[in-house]
Amino acid sequence: MGKPFEVKEFDSIICNEDYKNDEKYKYLDRKEFDNLVAFIREFSGDEESAGILDFMTIGCRRNIGKVVSIRNYVGLIQLNNGFQIQILPKIFLGDGEDEGNAQTKKVFLRMLRSMKDFPSKVFHDASLKVDQMNLYELFINMYLQEVRQLVKRGIQCAYIEQEDNQRYYKGKLLVNQHVRANLAHRERFYVAYEEFHPNMPENKLVKATLSKLQKLTSSAENSKEIRQLLTAFEMVQASTNYEKDFSNVVTNRNTKYYEGLLQWSRVFLMNKSFTTFSGSTTSRALLFPMERVYESYVARQIKKVMCLDGWDVSSQDRGHYLFEKPRRQFALIPDIVMRKGERTVILDTKWKSLIDDERANYGISQADMYQMYAYSKKYNTSEIWLLYPVNDEMRGHTPIRFESGDGTTVNLHFVNVDKIEGNLQQLKKKLEVED
């Protein structure tokens, strides 16, 4: 696995050599650029994969030619010719340079861990060599950490039905097979029996995943770890029929430690992704919608900060609708609702980089403001907060506040995702002033 072509959200990719050294663009040679364009166009007519149109778009600029713009999704894709593109989130760090994007990757992985459906919960930031690995290698490393935890607990065994031609009788005699196999061997018995053995579907899938990753990884550290882990699965046959073994997985208290592992195994073995789209052009894809990642990360951190102060915090709050008659329609689902006594505060996260231009409404979407106004009226609260990620242009900006004139106030708060604990303490103080 070679070094991937690395870009960040909102970057523009071109193939015009005249602008190869222009800081505004990321240059890609013609062959790989055309492959990327073909990848994007594959999804143009696919309704189920419409999300790709929000991820990569093809435009044209005077004197430059075709331009591919990237937004919303972060992760890694590999085209069918093996070429890899790694997309990192646009995170503005307050500490200057981020050599090799190591800090950006650390923050992103920390954000991913907050997602409910993200399968890795036990990985340790310190053990991940983020400056030496691309995202795919980091995901492999996270999977290996999960397998290591499983091995420490002890891999599970179950009663597995076996068929064999034995020298002694046990279990149940399979008459037809016995007659065919033992006409000349009266000392043998073709029997079916149960044996307590680790060769259960869960272990077979984990071993198959380890075997596949051993071929894919280019990291010496990951390769060494895989070799060590495979020794714990010596008595297990690697799965060859993934669909069948996934369908035979049993969920109970004995196998709960396999849940996250099997999510990853499905991704690695069957080329699945965490997004709704996939295609024949991609041999591997791990893509994450940054709006959901950011929302989940902020919600989790706010619960840590505010619940200690007596606030009841709920995320993805439900129960309110824009219209009540003739039936409840158009559900309102704010990202975060906080309640304390008679007080209700609505917080909504927006993964968007604002601009320092009041006449352009700082780049805030008009539709977002309509949404905030509806929240205010339906939840009967004047306290609405929009939480945007901080950028260099808006860092340290004077407070931004919008008054509707009829009881709705929308405040802006800029979240520093790499120092989120301290940043949300500042938000807490702002809320105390409003009280």
Please give the largest β-sheet.
6 strands, mixed
Approximate shape: globular
If helices are DSSP runs of H or I spanning 4 or more residues, what is the number of helices? 12
Q: What Rg is obtained from the alpha carbons, in whole angstroms?
A: 27 Å
The total strand number stands at 19
Helix content: 25-40%
* Distance separating the two termini: 55 Å
Helix and strand composition category: alpha+beta
- The portion of residues forming beta strands comes to 15-25%
Overall residue-averaged pLDDT value: 85
Strand order of the largest sheet: 12-15-16-17-19-18
Low-confidence spans = 45-50, 276-283
Descriptive notes:
The protein has 435 residues and is an alpha+beta fold. Helices cover 33% and strands 23% of the residues. It contains twelve helices and 19 strands. The chain has helices at residues 30-41, 52-55, 102-113, 135-153, 175-181, 201-216, 220-230, 242-247, 259-270, 290-306, 366-378, 420-434, and strands at residues 5-8, 12-14, 26-27, 56-61, 65-70, 73-79, 84-88, 158-166, 172-173, 189-197, 282-289, 312-315, 320-323, 329-332, 336-340, 343-349, 383-389, 401-403, 409-415. Strands 12-15-16-17-19-18 form a six-stranded mixed β-sheet, sandwiched between helices. Strand 6 (73-79) and strand 7 (84-88) form a beta hairpin. Helix 4 (135-153) runs parallel beside helix 7 (220-230) and helix 10 (290-306) crosses helix 12 (420-434). The relative contact order is 0.10. Mean pLDDT is 85; it is low at 45-50 and 276-283.
